[in-house]
Amino acid sequence: MRPSTKEERRGSSSFVDFEAVKRILEAGNKAPTWDHNRNWQYVILRTDEEKDYAFAEAKKIADKFDAERYLNMPRPYPITLGQKMYGYAMPRQFTMLKDAPYVIIPLFKSKQLNGEYVSKLNPFATIWCVIENIFLAAAAEGLSCSMRIPLDREHDIVKAKLKVPPTYMIPVFIGIGYADPEEPVLEQYHPDIDKQIRFGKWK
């Protein structure tokens, strides 16, 4: 598992007090919301059996991914930091969730995403405010988060397995625990904020 915002790291299989997880979810519930209802739900997976069952599709995808081939395939340009991260993370998409003491699956109320107008994505935008709060609260507890966004049909497969009502959607799977001290820290891109700020208009 990767640390979310701090560098302190410990073994990912270490015991985590569930009271800490509840505090983290309380922080998630304090996120701003577009409709003031805060009608989010959280499915918590704790056992290996629960995680094996829920994430069989993620395991299939991870097992099929050839990281060596992906990282070394010919490219017309130098490999990017994002591609390096993808090549490192994809084979670990299942184990990083299975090794976590807890997996949080946040749910937001929406039958389907409709991006015709930005405002129609309000439920989706709001749940990501919740997720950001969860990451920050986990860091404040000395914990770390791993994250997997459901890929293609994986969303509906997991939703059916966990008997999630049809009116809810799953944005992400979040593993919470202490980070592995042996986990390498991959290089990150650090943008120049002065080049990102535009006053009045784009140009």
Automatic annotation (TrEMBL):
CDD domains: Nitro_FMN_reductase. Gene3D superfamilies: NADH Oxidase. One of its GO terms (molecular function) is oxidoreductase activity. Residues 16-178 form the Nitroreductase domain. The keyword Oxidoreductase applies. Keywords: Flavoprotein, FMN, Oxidoreductase. This is Nitroreductase family protein. It comes from Candidatus Borkfalkia avistercoris.
